[in-house]
Each structure stands twice: as structure tokens, then as C-alpha cells.
Amino acid sequence: MSLNHPMIVEVWPGDWGLPSVDLECLKILALVKFSGKEFKIKVCKNPYWTPKSTLPVVSHGKHVFHDYDEVMSYLRIKNVSPDHGLSTVEEADCLAYTYMVKEKLFPALQYIWWLDEKNYAGLTRPWYCKVIPFPFNFYYPQRFVSDAKKTVEAVCETETISEIENKLYSDAEKCLTSLSVKLGEKDFMFGSHPTSLDAVVFAYLAPLLKAPFKNPILQNHLKSCTNLQKLVSRICQRYFPLDYQAFEHKRKNEGIKSNLSSDVDSDYPHKTRNTIVAALIATFAMTGYAFMVGLVQSFPPWPLAILGEPIPTVHLKLLWDWSRMRNPHKRE
Fold first, then answer.
1. What count of other Cβ atoms lies within 10 Å of the Cβ of residue 218?
2. How distant is the alpha carbon of residue 14 from its chain centre?
3. Cα angle at 248 between 256 and 181, to 5 degrees?
4. Which of these, 3, 112, 204, 238, is most buried using a 10 Å CB contact count?
5. Metaxin glutathione S-transferase domain: from which residue to which, for each copy (predicted)?
């Protein structure tokens, strides 16, 4: 089929200004976007109904693809690969850096998302359980945890948790530093136009940069690589502007609501003070009115012989004429 007809890319939902939170989905979205060809995004919250019960799924006429390499090969056949125009050396560099990212950064990302207890309990599991419909929201998170364990075990084998973390974070930080050096001051990895390497880097870094992790160790290292931060923002704004703008608008509105809430809270002591003052004024007014109409009167003290001590000099006695209440027509 001609590429004049749009491709359909079925992906996990997005968040935090990204068209999808899943890195495999982001890789394909960025790759197809960089190719310049029209495509439509179809958001899927339950991959169970897809051909292989996985996401992403790319369809173009009778052609159906399930992973990045298949889509990349298809774009090459159609002569619309974003790597078109790279020299032989640049193509070799592109493959080498792509391999490095997959080998050194991907295991750390799997650990951060699915095996780190704080991140899994505080971010990953709640997010997927909210998005995926019941009862599949119990199955898929556990499946992804199992996949992550296999990935990490293949790299770290039988080390302790602390040794595993140290190795994963060390490899990932070195990878990020290498990518930062490669990018330098350029807009993209090989100059002014994005390539497949930029698609891979964006897919791996964007969720790491944007997601509100409870344990942000690797995220903090990424934030120290300012040019990589700018690369992610540049791709979001240029190629996925609707998601970026919608998130910024939402964040701005939430900031306004937060400020209004803070103003109300800051006025709380004054509201309490005013309530107390009003209550005291009302009490004095009611007491004065009671004296004035004779409901309450003062009377002199008398000795309290039994206790052997006088009562206070001023006493209030409630005058309640029960006889008048019982005989309202009786003349005095």
C-alpha cells in the first residue's frame, strides 16, 4: 500500500506531556514521525485484544508490525527512513549507539519502573492499574514485572540488591554521559535533522525525565545532562505539540488552583480570630439584654455558714417564674 494512506499506530496511553508512557510505543511513534509520513495514533488501554496481546501495533493496509525493527525495515523499503542521507560512518555510529542504549540503559529503566519498590508501589502499579480495565489490571503489571526480572537477571545474575543497583545505575549513567557528549551543542545526534538514534534516545529518556518517580536517582543524573533535557523538550514541542501543550495547560491550571487553596489556608488564623471575637460580642450583648429585661439580676452575698466562708460578691440568679408559667392568668 502507498504511504499516502496513513499508518495506524496503536499504543499505550500517554501522560506527563508524552503521547505514550511506554518506551517501545514511543520509539515507533518518534520513528514514524521523523519519517515525515502521515499516521494516526490509536490509544489502547487493554492489549489483550491486539493480535499478540502486546503493544505497540502498527498497521498499514494488510501489513501489521509489532516491534521497532519491523517498522524500521518497512520504512527503508519505502525509502522514507529518517536515516536516509547518513554517511556510512554515521550509519555505523547510529547502530553502535543504539546498541549501547539497549544494552546499558534499558536494564536500568526496567529496574526503575518495575523492580524498584518505591517506584513500583508509588507510581508504576497505580498508573497501570488505573488505566487497564479490570481484571486485566491484575495480570499485566505482574507480567511486566516478570519480564523486567528476566532482563535484569540476564545482566546481573546472582548479585545482591545493592550490587545490582550499583551496576545498573553505573552502566546507565555512563551511557547517558556518552549520549550527552555525542549530542554536544547540536539539535539532534547527527545534526539538524532527527534520525532513528534520536527516536531511540527520545523513547528511553522522555519517560525517565517526565515521570514523577519516588526514587529519582537516575532521573537526577539525566537532569544534570542539560543538552539531553533540551533534546527531549525539543522533540516534544516540535513533533508532539498537542500532548506537550495540553500537559502544560493542565499544569498551569493546577498551579492556579494550588495558589488559590494556599490563599484560603493562609486566611485560616484570621477566620478563627474573627469567629472568636464575634462569639464574645454576641455573648456580652445577650447578657446585657438579659440584665436589662430582668431575666438576670444581681443580688448581695450572704454568709455560707456551713462552709464557713462567703460566696463571691456578685452572683447571678436566673429568675424563672414557674408559678406564672403554670398560671399565666393569675393576678399578682
1. 21
2. 11
3. 130
4. 112
5. 172-235
